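User: Show me an example of a complex going from sequences to structure tokens.

Assistant: Sure. Here are the input components:
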Amino acid sequence: MSALLLTYSCKPGKVGSAVDADAAKKVYVAPGKYDEVYAFLSGGFSGQVAAYGIPSGRLLKVIPVFSQNAENGYGYSEETKPMLNTSHGFVPWDDAHHPELSKTDGEDDGRWLFINGNNTPRIARINLATFKTVEILELPNIGGNHASPFCTENTEYVVGNTRFSEPLDNSNGDVPIDSYKKNFKGAVSFVKIDKDNGAMKLAFQLIVPPFNYDLAHAGKGVSHDWIFFTCYNTEEAHTLLEVNASQRDKDFVMAVNWKKAEALIQAGKGTKITAKYAHNVYNEGTHTATSTMETGTQTLDVTKFPGLVYYMPCPKSPHGVDVTPDGENIVASGKLAAVIPVFSFQKMLTAIDKKEYDGMIDGNLPVLKYESVLKGEVKKPGLGPLHTEFDGQGYAYTTMFVSSEVVKWKIDNLEIIDRIPSYYSPGHLSIVGGDSKKPYGKYLLSLNKITKDRYLPTGPELAQACQLIDITGNKMKLLLDFPTIGEPHYAQMILADKILKNQVKFFKLEDNKNAYVTKSEKDTKVVRNGNRVDVYMTAIRSHLAPDNIEGIKVGDEVYIHVTNLEQDWDVPHGFAIKGANNAELLVMPGETCTLKWNPYQQGIIPFYCTDFCSALHQEMQGYFRVSPAGSNTPIKFSIGENPVTQ
Amino acid sequence: MKSLTRVLIFISAALMLSAYFFPLWHILLDAPQYPEGLEMKIWLNGLSGNITQINGLNHYIGMKFIVADDFKEFKILPYVFGLLTMIGLASAIFKSRKLLWTWFISLCLFGVIGFSDFYKWEYNYGHNLNPHAAIKVEGMNYQPPLFGYKQLLNFTAGSLPDTGGILVGLGGVLAAAALFYKPRLSPNKSK
């Protein structure tokens, strides 16, 4: 009987057991109060980033990055269309995986958020003062920009690396797929970040063996000069990777000495190759993006420069690679492995020094001996370890995809302290400052891949979700479940104060340098040039000026440049035209946005403000008169005389 | 003239000079949609604060736009006030009670005329509303209070002295003290 009870009580805990008794109190943020932390969650296949308040889990804003966003005109307005330009033309979507906060001295500084586009390789930069995407840089020579955009200790570089190795862009790509080993390559991309304005520039690419590069993290402190990438498919399979890339007992963590690579490039050792990639910059002065097609990149063939790259064997298809806050240990997670290996940076240096090699890759790229670089293994952590972050108190937290849990372990003795279930199958996790030199700790987000029965069902396509876990005590406690946009692939969390202090409330009209700005109502006009018509329109509570426009003809290309004249917090105006084959505009105070419209039939076409701006918002409307092509209706524009403002 | 009186006059004049460096008065507006509040600060020579926003809101009720150039007062006030302060200083320098009286009376007049003028402007802005305004409320005027708070539709309007006004007021009190305060002689000294 007692044995039976014991068996029963040992059955792994169910839902109720993990929820903190004080959870409601701990996540309750009273109406009108601010959350303590911003969480930036990637939207995965939504292509966007979402900002949430933690601990409440309230959605604050979806920041459009790689996907067109009809809601505010991003990717539809003339000003923002260039942001989604690539060497393949306009690509209105991407798969956004890893948000990365800019860092100064290894700490999150709250200036920018970088995020990778996985599908058509790109890196975007979001300005955290305006929560706008201000730059997107395409990366040539790679396929699947997954190991990206992790940054070095002072954001000297953010990186990109190929998940799908492929022939370099400037080679003849028309080769048999089974010539993989001969013709395919990897390219580790280093994107230089301007420390003052954040501007990105593809500095160089290291040409590496055609493995699949999965994730990365840069060293910090003692390991400042190095960055670590996981690689799987070291079998170099090109078909049925599920089986063929899972054959080897060990794949690798690739350690790259980026400082050395930088020095070689500065010394002119790089080889310039042709490459075509788009560089899109949104200028916050002109509120306008431009897209430039770059033509080349510097490369270094790592086999020609000894000392750049070393491989550390890592069990079974490693996924995450994470560096402890002190920069001393490198935690890698073999997703099919039964242990979590923890590598020692010091031992790695010693092994390199003493040439403790276990063979070579591609002739001269050393594989270091597993035992020589290993600090130890976390034994029986669970099934399917993926990612690790740190709380700054000497503990590490690792997600277990297969056994669906988060495991807490001690860095110094590698002993497991606690485990808590996830609902279900966590991928990444995020701790406030958890990948930085000085983690804040307190909250952990488990970002899950499966939701099933956690919420009211919504048909076959369910909400995706994450869980908020309290990590202040010895035992982890579940606080909150909340659904997210797209797939919450990864998140970065930062104390709200670091973002709040830089917030822009509105754009200064006097500083607006848009080519089509209209700074006052008396400057509004309609200008015809051939079949192009430019409408210089203003919006202020509660009218659009001009609001009666005639002389537009079928077949014209009409550009409506709307300037929001408001100079106050939270007074956007919207703009929409009946039947326009386009989205709407949402114009912030002091900003100018342009909607392109191709009227295709004669008639009277209404337009109006879409953002409920004021008590007389419903009056904020106007009409276009569209005349037949070739008619003589003259351009005419007006707005009724306003007795109050004259 | 006792040295204490002269000291009081100098301090008073110094306080008066703060009018050139700090706003004298401010009007505050609070509404449910403006929890952070809107304010208009009145200086010796002009206006500052959220004038554009206030004008933007006032156009709904047909109030005339507030433009600093409409006020002749801002052109002459710095000189008038400078002259006043000089009278005060002169009274101390020349130890003239007559000048001190002149100063005190001028200050009183200045206060009375100033507030009357302020009231007149407030009255005009609050009552002379454009008949074509979008929002018309029967019997409603939008005159802000001369001093204190008043509810105007969704806005609570407050009218209060600002730093400069408080310091000038204090200066006025000291000027009065210089004129009227006679230190009581202690019993010991009277012997």
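The lines above are the inputs; the final block is the predicted structure for all two components together. DSSP finds six helices and five strands in chain B.
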